[in-house]
Amino acid sequence: MDYIRFDAGEMTLIIACKVGSAPAVAYWGEILDEGSNIDDIRALTERQIVSGGADIIIEPSLAMEVGLGYCAPSGFEAHREGRAWDSHFTVFSAIKYNDSAQIQCRDTETQIELTYDIKVNPKTGLIQFSSSVTNLATGDDHHTILTINKMATAVLPIAGRMTELIGFSGRWADEFRRERIKRFSGSYVRENKRGRTSHDSFPGVILARPNTCEKSGEAYGLHLAWSGNHSVRVDSLMDGRLLASMGALFFPGEIRLKAGETFHSPTIIAGYSNNGLSALSRQYHDHVRQNLIAPAVRERPRPVHYNSWEAVYFDHDIEELKAMADKAAAIGVERFVLDDGWFGSRRSEKSGLGDWVVSDAIYPDGLKPLIDHVTGLGMEMGIWFEPEMVNPDSALYRAHPDWVLHLRAREQLPFRNQYVLDISRQDVADYLFQQIDAVLRDHDIGYVKWDMNRDLNHPGNVQGYARPHAHVLALYALIERIRIAHPTVEIESCASGGGRPDFGILAHTDRVWTSDNNDAIDRQNIQKGASFFLPLNILGSHVGPKKCHITGRTISMAMRAATALMGHMGTELNLLTEPQEDLEELAIAIALYKKHRALIHSGDLYRIDTPQYINAMGIVSRDKSEALYSVAFLTGYHDTHPIMMPFLGLEARYNYKMNAIWPNNSKSTPISVGKEISIDGYYSGTILQNLGMQLPPSFPETVHLLHLKKED
Ligand code: GLA
Fold first, then answer.
1. Is 451 near ligand 1, meaning CB less than 6 Å away?
2. Among 55, 92, 705, 709, whose CB has the most other CB atoms within 10 angstroms?
3. Whose Cα sits closest to atom 4 in ligand 1?
4. Above 80 in pLDDT, residue 673?
5. Ligand 1 test: best mutation among 196, 340, 454, 517, most atoms within 8 Å of CB?
6. Which residue's CA is the nearest one to ligand 1's atom 11?
7. Segment 221-234 mean pLDDT
């Protein structure tokens, strides 16, 4: 077949795949009429030869390999000891089967095979691109080894009218920052070499038109499902073309294929919508909820967490923790997670990582008394691990100093007093599996917080080869081994907060720790940023101490609780020292979360365009019979009144009963200055959507939660 075509969700994708030609995206965008003639695309996009260039037109291909002759940043660079670098792939087989296609390409000169697997979600239109490269050479002498320097999973042409780009940056405790910039000629490039997904370069990018907003307009999204080094590129070329690509990023010599070996690239998840940024996000949310999260977790209400970290840090005392558990159960917590500090000599960041046995000094009778206490209160027990790491001051390191990733005598960069284990070694992976397996087998534990708290700066193995890519694959394999042995245990992906929150790790875990920053004002923004690709049901979101440990800001319980409620809610504060009235208010918020969590976790998300002082979003049930809107006043505002806010996502034909359910009147600080007007009442969906509602004048740091229910 000459073309493969998919029509799904809001998009049509057409890939040219004629045998003997380079594979290329012929069209990707707004859905085309069923009867549209594909040959028209060729005719209408045909380019003229211009002076100063080649005498033929060279079209970009999915691979953009150097041998194509196209003068643009290449998507594929490989060689055999400096030769055979000129690969140029042409199709030899293309098949389509329902929502999937496979395009096989080959270059007989360089003896490399390149295969694309494409899968389209029939409902949302989200596309998964993955690719693999096989070394077709025969023999085992070193001339046959193929070294891949660079490989984008796919290079995708984007409609040139997308003149704006939304990229993701950030840092520890301030993840998922968005930057909306105008495209410029040249390349927007983010290269992540941290060995984990990173806080500062989430592998996502959105291309949009200047008028694209949350509610309307065209947007293309790309995300790389990979938890390691990556490259994100948007190239605005001098021939007017716009190309976007993503792929794993390699250290020198990292990917070397012997004859017959295959390398699999991580998957790009690509979306298109003409209905605004929120509609694009909803495609990604559906994908995570339907395809990534384990069915058992998906179908279960997400329990309210208690996490011990910001309450006690390393200062574990069993009686204090039991008292904390009593308080937690009393306010409605359902899962008690014991964070760092329960094992080996781990009394601070300086020692014990790697020794995954319960500390005799702190828990003389083991963890059982605490776990029995927690489960006796009706809660589930969870526990913290950081399996990939070791402190030099640990029994493990003393026994196996050669197990860490390092390079000869090169001094390691100090980073939280810890080294990274070479988990791609079978003996290391076996050790970690046995240690974690023993803890989970011997105890009634239903949840693991899997942490990862440093970058991989010198990721070499004992032979001196770079291993960050192998590290990620070994990580996925180790987690799967644990999941197979303990299928009911849920796992959270944490990396100093939100340093590993991509779809690659989410295929093996069930929740992400969104950020170490529990400051509710910052969190509003962080959670909003995360929601561009991640659904609320997997975003760990905790009520922290009144005075935030990271920003030093003092924030009301009303604000903290309402912020945590719009995610997978938890608490992470010292319940023994927080004011009683705050705990009472928290208990009310937890009850509210339980009442509405089915909606928050399964509904469709509508972020609302607002001035910066407000962060607003709605979550609307699939049948549009119910919705919950969160309107957070982050700061003050200049006008006498705040904005009229549209309630996006409702059904125009329905009438809704609106109830302001937060702040909780009896317990909260005052929300408005001047005369209070009750918001509660019955309103038509069409007016709520199109006219909206005058928001009540509100103090800074106030969250209004408005619940709407269809009138019967
Ligand atoms: C990381 C995590 C925290 C906590 C600590 C424990 O920073 O993000 O939530 O678990 O490690 O050391």
1. yes
2. 705
3. 309
4. no
5. 340
6. 496
7. 98
Instruction: Return the residue whose CA atom lies nearest to atom 6 of ligand 1.
Output: 340
Domain boundary among the residues 274, 292, 310 is at 292
567-603 pLDDT, tens digit per residue, is 999 999 999 999 999 999 999 999 999 999 999 999 9
CA of 201 to the centre of ligand 1 (A): 20
Identify whether 639 is part of a domain: yes
Residue nearest to atom 2 of ligand 1 (CA): 496
Amino acid at 278: S
Q: What is the pLDDT of residues 243-275, one digit of tens each?
A: 999 999 999 999 999 999 999 999 999 999 999
- Asked whether 616 lines ligand 1 (CB < 6 A), one says no
Q: Is 340 in the pocket of ligand 1 (CB under 6 A)?
A: yes
Q: Which atom of ligand 1 is nearest to the CA of 494?
A: 8
Domain assignment present for residue 79? The answer is: yes
Q: Is the CB of 384 under 6 A from ligand 1?
A: yes
Distance 426 CA to ligand 1 centre (A): 27
Tokens of 330: 């009393």
Nearest CA to ligand 1 atom 12: 340
Q: How far is the CA of 496 from the centre of ligand 1 (A)?
A: 5
Owning domain of residue 66: 3-46+56-292
CB 456 within 8 A of CB 194: yes
Q: Is the dihedral of CA 192, 196, 200, 206 positive or negative?
A: positive
Q: Is the CB of 339 under 6 A from ligand 1?
A: yes
CA of 413 to the centre of ligand 1 (A): 20
> How many domains are there within the chain?
2
Q: Which residues make Cβ contacts (< 8 Å) with residue 124, sequence separation at least 6?
A: 8, 9, 271, 282, 283, 286, 287
Residue 579 CA to ligand 1 center (angstroms) comes to 25
Per the residue annotation, which of 516, 519, 522, 604 is the catalytic one? 516
Ligand 1 pocket member 309 (CB < 6 A)? yes
CA–CA separation, 434 vs 430, rounded Å?
6
Q: Cα separation of 631 and 609, whole Å?
A: 11
Tokens of 325: 């558990």
Nearest residue to 620 via CA among 710, 686, 526: 710
Residue 284: CATH number of its domain: 2.70.98.60
Q: 118-173, pLDDT tens digit by residue?
A: 999 999 999 999 999 999 999 888 899 999 999 999 999 999 999 999 999 999 99
Neighbours of 372 (CB within 10 A): 14
Residue 672: give its domain's CATH number.
Answer: 2.60.40.1180
Q: State the burial class of residue 178 (Cβ atoms within 10 Å of its Cβ: 0-12, 13-18, 19+).
A: middle
Cα–Cα distances in angstroms (integers) from residue 654 to residues 692, 693, 710, in the given order: 15, 16, 6
Q: Has residue 667 got a pLDDT over 90? A: no
Separation between Cα atoms, residue 111 and residue 89, nearest integer Å: 10
130 part of a folded domain: yes
Confidence of residue 676 (pLDDT cuts 50, 70, 90): low
Q: In the chain, pLDDT over 70 holds for what percent of residues?
A: 98
The reply to whether 68 falls in a domain is yes
Task: Assess whether 451 carries a catalytic annotation.
Answer: yes
Question: Residues of the chain with pLDDT > 90: what percent?
Answer: 94
Q: Tell me whether residue 516 is one of the annotated catalytic residues.
A: yes
Query: Measured between alpha carbons, how far is 690 from 653 in angstroms, rounded to an integer?
Result: 12
- CA 497 / ligand 1 centre spacing (Å): 7
Instruction: Please say if the pLDDT value at position 1 is more than 90.
Output: no
